[in-house]
Each structure stands twice: as structure tokens, then as C-alpha cells.
Amino acid sequence: MKRFIFSILVLFTGMNVAVAAGDIEAGKGKVAVCAGCHGANGISASDTYPNLAGQHADYIVKQLKAFKNGTDRSNALMSPMAAGLSEQDMMDIGAYYNSLPRTPVESAAGGDATASSAPAAKYEPDPVAGKSLYELGDASRGIGACIGCHGKDGNSDVLIYPNLAKQHPEYIQKQLHNFKAMENRANYAMNKFAGQMTDEEILDIGAYLADTQALANVKPKKVIAVAITAEVLAGEKKAATCVACHGQGGNKPIADYPRLAGQSAQYLVKQLTEFKSGVRANAVMAGMAAALSEQDMTELAAYFAAQKPLAGNGKGSEVGSKIYYGGKVNHVNQAITACVACHGATGKGMAKAGFPSLANQSAEYITSQLKQFKSGARANDKASMMRNIAMKLSDNDIDELAQFVATLK
Ligand code: HEC
Ligand code: HEC
Ligand code: HEC
Ligand code: HEC
């Protein structure tokens, strides 16, 4: 149990309060009052009270604190219950419930599994559709795959993500409606996902989670590949300060600010790191990057990389296109490597090799960077890869290249 407790302290209290590890025996002595609703063994006979047996201790503690503080979660029955609990009580109780087996309950898996509080009473819930949404999410609506956080078959490996397997469908549905309405329960990711779910999908998910094993061999129908991760969501929150210049989703149509949408995450992290250290010199971005931790950079990069870029503003250029695809020998007989070799036929670059995407960028920004590489004002390219090329380009080459590159998409 000890490892659970350490992660609680670090993640949620942020304080190093001296609280002993959760004690199963002590917890057992503190749950008499809880049994009336949550069942003597943590399996509740009533559909409206969640099963607590086998739930992660960290998660239980976090919820009890949320009920007690009333900020992220409120419930008329639970708030007074949690009000009297000390942090030590919560840990003991978490440890105790975690130690109990999560056995299925007849009433939960039974025939009336999805009726009572259901908004669409006539709808016949479809557990296969529920499983499909659970495992695949729906990227087109920004619904993350539940399996990514809540684990295969509803058994999560991450201690702060609740186990959902063998939970009462009514309870699951009520929570999803709470998240959806942003009433009584606040959690950034869950508010977002549930906000996009239809009432029918909520019923489907409940039906699936009542007994995930019952469907173990059913192949879910494919919805859409999923790109939303916890990292992307965290990055979106942190990007609030960036949008003033880079625009919503890193897509500002103002030419002087580079488009970040769709750029490779690896390249974005490299640039932020180098703005911060000064290896890439820019007064504005140095200030912006100074406050960012490595984690912030990773999350911001994941967010911007996942956005769909708008088109660039190039007019097109024959001369530029020729240099891009074929390189050129300049007036003093220097060979200029074709851009296509590193930035690719459609300008998408090669993320793994550290070659950024140029597609969808503005002509003004492309020009400014080529000039900076040419003069050496920008010198963060590994092995002088870009400087060696840009120093051989004439100002006219740069203008033509920019007009062409900014048509790539
Ligand atoms: C009068 C009935 C009642 C009693 C007694 C009660 N609870 Fe609850 N509990 C509820 C209800 C109802 C909910 C669901 C609240 C909601 O809809 O958000 C809940 C939710 C919870 C949750 C969140 C579970 C989850 O999956 O998110 C925890 C943890 C919890 N209770 C622990 C306790 C503990 C510990 C005690 C004893 C100190 C206790 N409860 C006593 C009714 C009760
Ligand atoms: C990015 C990670 C993440 C993804 C993806 C995710 N969840 Fe959650 N979910 C959470 C977290 C964290 C909580 C706990 C929130 C809190 O602390 O109140 C939660 C809570 C829940 C709860 C309440 C459980 C309880 O015991 O009260 C339900 C139900 C739920 N999620 C269903 C889903 C469904 C259905 C999906 C897919 C459509 C999904 N989740 C996708 C992170 C995630
Ligand atoms: C005040 C305006 C402003 C704000 C706010 C701002 N940026 Fe920038 N950003 C710029 C400018 C201007 C450049 C181009 C710098 C140059 O010419 O080298 C730039 C360049 C970048 C680049 C390099 C892109 C490339 O293609 O090489 C990244 C990455 C970046 N910004 C990320 C961010 C992030 C993340 C934030 C928020 C934390 C942010 N910026 C906030 C103005 C801003
Ligand atoms: C040998 C590989 C290579 C070739 C060939 C090459 N580049 Fe690059 N280019 C790079 C690398 C690597 C970077 C990123 C430098 C860094 O890490 O900051 C880059 C960066 C750039 C950038 C800055 C992008 C941004 O978002 O800030 C522009 C613009 C650019 N290249 C244009 C060109 C053009 C135009 C050509 C052809 C004339 C060309 N490159 C040829 C490797 C190459």
C-alpha cells in the first residue's frame, strides 16, 4: 500500500504532510457508516451507490477530498460524509476498500441494468457500441479513447484513473451526465469527452461497463482512429498565453508569427528548449520560453502538433519550385542542395530526423528564417545544415523559394 500513499502526497496535496501510510485494518474500523450505502463488502446493492471494492486507493482519497472541499465534486449525501474525515482516515479507508475484491453484483448485471434514471427510456442500450466507443473514442468529436486512461476492460493501471469495470451502469451514466452538464463534477478531460457524448452513447457505455467480460470476444466496430491524449489536453490548457501571437490552435493567419499547427512535436520541443537556453536567439520567444518546464514544452508541443494547419499564403514560383526540387548551382559555382532531400516532396519534413515541416507556413516567416540562417542570426541548426545552404542563396532565391514553399500543404 505504501507506494499508493506516496503518489497521493506528490500528486494531490503537493505538501509533505506527515501522514502515515493507509492502514487496511484501521480503515476497516472506519467504514461502518459507509456500509449502509456502499455495502458491507464495498459492493453496493443499490444502483445509485457506486461500488468501492477494488477501486484504487489514490482515487478514493482524491474523491473524498473533492467531496470535502466541494470544489470539483459535490453531492448532498457524500459531502457531509467526507466533511468529518481526516486525511489519515481517507487513506485508511482507501487502503481498505482497495483490498476488497470487485465481484460482480447480480442486480447490477441483471435485466433492468440501464433503466431508472435513463433520459431515453425506450432506447435499447448497445454494449457493443459502448465497447467500440470505449476502445476507439471518436477523434472527429474530440472524444478520447476511454481505454487509454481507464484501461483494458475498465481496469485502469493508473492509480488516479478510476476502475470502471463492474460498476453499476446507473452510476456510470449519472457521472457521465454530471460531467457532461458540468454540474456537480469538474474534471477537464471528462467534461470535454462527456460533453460530446449523446444520451444514447452514455447508455451504451453503461451497458458495456456493467460486465466488460461478457463481451470479451466481440470485435468492436471501428469508429475513427484516435489522436487525443492526456498530453494534448494538458497542452491545450497551457497554450492560452501562446494564442495571442500564434493564434487559436497555433494557426494565426498573421504572417510574422510562425504557424505551429501540425508542426512535429519533436521540433517544437527543440525550438522551445533552445529559445529558453538562448541557442536560438529571439527576445520575444526567450521571454515566453523562460517559464516553461520540460513537461510544459512536451505538452504544448503535443497540442500544437495535433492541430490541423490552415493553408499558407504563397503566390507560387517557378524558380522557387526548381530550387526546392532540384537544387541549383549559383553564380560562384556553389552547389545548393535541393530542399526536397530533407523537407520532403510536400514540405512535411521528417520528424524523426529533426527536419521540420515547412508546409502551410507563411512566405514572410520562411523568408525571415532563411535570411536569419544566411546571416547566422539563427544558428541552432545541427551541423550547420541550414546555414550551409542559406549562405549560398541570393536574396532573390530566398524570395522565390518563400513564395513557392508557402504553397505547400
Ligand atoms: C447515504 C448514503 C451514503 C453513505 C452513508 C456514504 N456514501 Fe459514499 N456515495 C454515496 C453516493 C450517492 C455517491 C455518488 C455521488 C455522486 O453521484 O457523485 C457516493 C460516492 C462515493 C465515492 C466516489 C466513488 C467513485 O467511484 O467516484 C466514494 C470514494 C465514497 N462515496 C466513499 C464513502 C465513504 C468512505 C463513506 C463513509 C465514510 C461513504 N461514502 C458513505 C452515498 C453514500
Ligand atoms: C485522459 C484520461 C481519460 C480518458 C481518455 C477518459 N477518462 Fe474518464 N476519468 C478520467 C479521470 C482522471 C477521472 C476521475 C475524475 C475525478 O477525479 O473526478 C475519470 C472519471 C470517469 C468516470 C467516473 C468514475 C467514478 O467512479 O465516479 C466515468 C464514468 C468515466 N471517467 C468514463 C469515461 C469514458 C466513458 C471515457 C471515454 C469516452 C473516458 N472516461 C475517458 C480520465 C479519463
Ligand atoms: C508576443 C508574441 C508571441 C507569443 C505570446 C508567443 N510567441 Fe512563439 N514566436 C513568436 C515569434 C515572433 C516567433 C518567430 C521567432 C523568430 O523569428 O525566430 C515565434 C516562434 C516560435 C516557435 C518556433 C517555430 C518554428 O517554426 O521554428 C515556437 C515553437 C513557438 N514560437 C512557440 C510558442 C509557444 C509554445 C508560446 C506560448 C508559451 C509562444 N510561442 C508564445 C511570437 C510569440
Ligand atoms: C540537409 C537537410 C536540409 C536541407 C537540404 C534543407 N534543410 Fe531546411 N532545415 C533543416 C533542418 C535540420 C532545420 C531545423 C533546424 C533546427 O533544428 O532548428 C531546417 C529548418 C528550415 C527552416 C526553418 C523552419 C521553421 O519552422 O523555423 C526553413 C524555412 C528551411 N529549413 C527552408 C529550407 C529550404 C528553402 C531549403 C532548400 C533551399 C532547405 N531548407 C534545405 C534541414 C535541411
Your description of this structure?
This protein is mainly α and 409 residues long. The chain has four domains: 102 residues, Cytochrome c-like domain (Cytochrome Bc1 Complex, Chain D, domain 2, Orthogonal Bundle), CATH 1.10.760; 107 residues, Cytochrome Bc1 Complex, Chain D, domain 2; 76 residues, Cytochrome c-like domain (Cytochrome Bc1 Complex, Chain D, domain 2, Orthogonal Bundle); 88 residues, Cytochrome Bc1 Complex, Chain D, domain 2 (Orthogonal Bundle). Helix content is 48%, strand content 1%. It contains 22 helices and two strands. The protein has a two-stranded antiparallel sheet. Helix 4 packs antiparallel against helix 6 and helix 15 crosses helix 16. The longest helix has 13 residues. One heme C (HEC) binds next to helix 3, helix 4 and helix 5.
Q: Can you describe this structure in just a few lines?
A:
This protein folds into 4 domains: 102 residues, Cytochrome c-like domain (Cytochrome Bc1 Complex, Chain D, domain 2); 107 residues, Cytochrome c-like domain (Cytochrome Bc1 Complex, Chain D, domain 2), CATH 1.10.760; 76 residues, Cytochrome c-like domain (Cytochrome Bc1 Complex, Chain D, domain 2, Orthogonal Bundle), CATH 1.10.760; 88 residues, Cytochrome Bc1 Complex, Chain D, domain 2. Helix content is 48%, strand content 1%.
Query: What structural class results from the helix and strand content?
Result: mainly alpha
Q: What is the N-to-C order of secondary-structure elements (H for helix, E for strand)?
A: HHHHHHHHHHHHHHHHHHEEHHHH
Low-confidence stretches are: 1-18, 106-120
Evaluate the radius of gyration. Answer: 27 Å
The helix content, as a percent range, equals: 40-55%
**Anisotropy-based shape:** elongated
Largest sheet: 2 strands, antiparallel
Give the count of helical stretches: 22
Distance between the termini: 53 Å
Spell out the CATH superfamily of the largest domain: Cytochrome c-like domain
CATH class of the largest domain: Mainly Alpha
Specify the CATH architecture of the largest domain: Orthogonal Bundle
* Attached small molecules: heme C
Number of domains: 4
Read across the widest sheet, the strand sequence of neighbours is: 1-2
* Average pLDDT number: 85
Instruction: Tally the beta strands.
Output: 2
The CATH topology of the largest domain is what?
Answer: Cytochrome Bc1 Complex, Chain D, domain 2
Strand % is under 5%
